[in-house]
Design goal:
Length: about 150
């Protein structure tokens, strides 16, 4: 059975004010938060895997949103950490400014669930009203609420 997006999003895994201005450091901030919440046991290896995947295939999509991820045995379930940057962080060859970063770790056995969840996230952030709410949210609770309005 597919995993509901609401089961994967947790306000304890949201950083509304990333301190970092470069992608590797921003990813480290988000991954450290996932580790602090017990979602990842080996944060350094996970960071290396996400960075390697990002180097090969930058994850920036339109509207200043990125989905850096890794398929890895370092997680037992799909995990999502979110960071927001007011100034934007340059990503990819064109150095597109990215303001919303969704870091995702997925075990190989849950690839289909991962594709469904990412598809749902992409559709949500393409919506101008939802994206605007995400960019203006004052609290992690408000941020998650914009992504899961039916809860």
């Amino acid at each position: 059975m597919a995993i509901a997006l609401s089961e994967l999003l947790d306000e304890k895994q949201v950083i509304l004010r990333l301190r970092s201005r470069k992608l590797p450091n921003a990813l480290r901030e988000i991954i450290q938060l996932l580790a602090q919440n017990g979602k990842i046991s080996d944060e350094e290896t996970f960071l290396e895997e996400v960075l390697a995947r990002e180097q090969a295939h930058p994850s920036a999509v339109e509207n200043g949103v990125a989905f850096p991820h890794a398929r890895t045995d370092l997680v037992d379930e799909i995990v999502i950490g979110i960071g927001r940057s007011r100034a934007g962080i340059p990503i990819g060859a064109d150095q597109q400014r990215t303001r919303l970063i969704f870091v995702i770790g997925v075990p190989e056995r849950l690839l289909n669930d991962y594709l469904i969840c990412v598809g749902m996230l992409v559709r949500l952030v393409k919506n101008d009203a939802i994206r605007s709410t995400l960019l203006q949210a004052e609290t992690p609770h408000e941020f998650i609420g914009a992504l899961t309005p039916a809860l």
